[in-house]
Design goal:
Elements lengths: L1 H17 L13 E10 L5 E9 L4 E10 L5 E15 L2 E11 L14 E2 L4 H14 L1
Antiparallel strand pairs: 1-2, 2-3, 3-4, 4-5, 5-6
Helix pairs in contact: 1-2
Length: about 140
């Protein structure tokens, strides 16, 4: 996973260095899945938070945050999910035009996907994009 992120960072930096016309476009090298995990959270450290981004070559992105039983792949529920599009400008990936759904109760660690509510704002994926760039530097 870390090697993939390092490779992504090198690609983003090389594209930024070579792209002087500042046009906004999808990055073919960015295409693919990315996963970030925060392990052993919750009151008794019984939950793992898993955040996923899936970039498509046509400029579309899907993201989701799920909660698993710690140390397993058993999904307890969702924290958020979104669909949107992405572009790169000046070497920075921007997720735009999103339809996002998040848990309503901020004290809860997960909910059924059907119970998530529509919310404005790019908080979750902005942080994930920063992780992609930071881990790859």
């Amino acid at each position: 996973m870390n090697q993939k992120l390092l490779f992504l960072g090198m690609i983003v930096l090389s594209i930024y260095g070579c792209n002087q016309n500042n046009e906004m476009r999808p990055i073919k090298e960015l295409v693919g899945p990315y996963e970030f995990k925060m392990e052993k959270v919750g009151k008794n450290h019984e939950i793992d938070f898993v955040d996923r981004l899936q970039f498509k070559s046509v400029g579309i992105v899907y993201g989701e945050g799920i909660s698993n039983i710690s140390g397993t792949n058993q999904v307890l529920g969702y924290r958020y999910y979104f669909n949107g599009s992405y572009k790169i400008e000046d070497g920075v990936v921007n997720i735009i035009e999103t339809d996002a759904f998040q848990i309503d109760d901020e004290d809860s660690f997960f909910s059924l996907k059907d119970n998530l509510i529509y919310k404005d704002g790019n908080q979750v994926w902005d942080q994930l994009l920063k992780k992609i760039i930071t881990r790859s530097s």
